[in-house]
Design a protein that fits this description.
The protein is α/β, with parallel strands linked by helices. It folds into 2 domains: about 50 residues; about 250 residues, 2-enoyl-CoA Hydratase, Chain A, domain 1. About 50% of the residues lie in helices and about 15% in strands. The chain has 14 helices and 8 strands. Strands 1, 2, 3, 4, 5, 6, 7 and 8 form an 8-stranded mixed beta sheet that branches. Helix 1 packs antiparallel against helix 2, helix 3 packs across helix 11 and helix 6 runs parallel beside helix 8. It is globular, with a radius of gyration of 21 Å. The termini are far apart. The mean pLDDT is about 90.
């Protein structure tokens, strides 16, 4: 079951049967093309059936999959010439956020993103993708460079949330995120935000104010994790699936609510099943939106961006 989620077990068993039949046929030099074809059609039907009716909690599990591509993976897969810049010039470098200058399709850009680790050592280094205030201040420093030199900004969001430790609070975690929200609202360059995994709480919002906010098909975006919500509302983190349904955290939900602008399709089973395919879809979406935004003046960009976010959260009393 390595790399497979519990709800994918029926598909795993079928794919194992296909592999076993193919291996047996090769070793015995037997033609089983007809039988293989039937099983592959059955597997494809089952794949569509499973991924066509995912619950919000199942989408959350895919968004958190440990093999899912992270920011640096997308930069490599998109063949982006990236030069990382370090430090906030106040305290230290926070490796939960990577930031720097790059070339995207021969276009000079600034790229900023959360970064998780693949193993225990990397996760400690990256603090599980949960940034300290110096991470958000580093991001803001690089964004100001983008404004100074007229470079579009691309951000990749993938964090459970900002780090809630005592040290982070002492150094002004809430203030750092709040300043980013204000500054990003007024930057005179195009900003494209892509939620590639978890978009958790203020930790996500600190990089999330953009002219266009895109989400991968099996990513999530919410004010709190389902477990945190369940702990507060139900006093029981085990009711996370129920909380996920109530919060409406999927890309489809957020499109209907007007919070995001586009859903980027993923390969069947999620981006981790075919990272190259996922990266091509991400790259095409970013290119399309940057091309549209670059036709706008800096005044228009800021005006439309402010209007976009100020229109969110409207409600009616019944």
């Amino acid at each position: 079951m390595a790399g497979w989620l519990e709800f994918e077990k029926p598909l795993l068993e079928l794919e194992q049967r296909i592999d076993e039949l193919r291996s047996f046929a090769d070793s015995q030099n037997i033609d089983v093309a007809k039988e293989l074809s039937k099983l592959e059609v059955k597997a494809e039907d089952l794949r569509k059936q499973i991924y066509g009716k995912l619950t919000r909690w199942q989408v959350t599990q895919i968004a958190r999959h440990p093999r899912r591509p992270y920011t640096l993976d997308y930069l490599k897969l998109l063949d982006i010439d990236f030069t990382e810049l370090h430090g906030d010039r106040r305290y230290r470098d926070d490796e939960a956020i990577v930031a720097g200058l790059g070339y995207f399709n021969d276009r000079k850009v600034v790229i900023i993103g959360h970064q998780k680790g693949r193993d225990t050592k990397q996760n400690i280094q990256r603090n599980f993708g949960m940034a300290h205030p110096e991470g958000y201040r580093k991001a803001l420093r690089i964004m100001r460079l983008a404004a100074k030199f007229g470079r579009p900004i691309i951000t990749f969001v993938d964090t459970p949330g900002a780090w809630p430790g005592v040290g982070a609070e002492e150094r002004g975690q809430a203030e750092a995120i709040a300043v980013n929200l204000h500054e990003m609202s007024h930057l005179p360059v195009p900003i494209v935000v892509v939620v590639i995994g978890e978009g958790g709480s203020g930790g996500a919002l600190g990089l999330g104010v953009g002219d266009r906010v895109l989400m991968l098909e099996y990513s999530i975006y919410s004010v709190i994790s389902p477990e945190g919500c369940a702990s507060i509302l139900f006093r029981d983190a085990a009711r996370a699936a129920q909380a996920a349904d109530a919060m409406k955290i999927t890309a489809q939900d957020l499109t209907q609510l007007g919070v995001i602008d586009e859903i980027i399709p993923e390969p069947p089973g999620g981006a981790h099943r075919a990272p190259e395919v996922a990266a091509r879809s991400v790259g095409a979406a970013i290119e399309r939106h940057l091309s549209e935004l670059e036709s706008l003046s800096s005044v228009e960009l800021v005006r439309k961006r402010l209007a976009k976010f100020m229109a969110m959260g409207e409600f009616r009393e019944v």
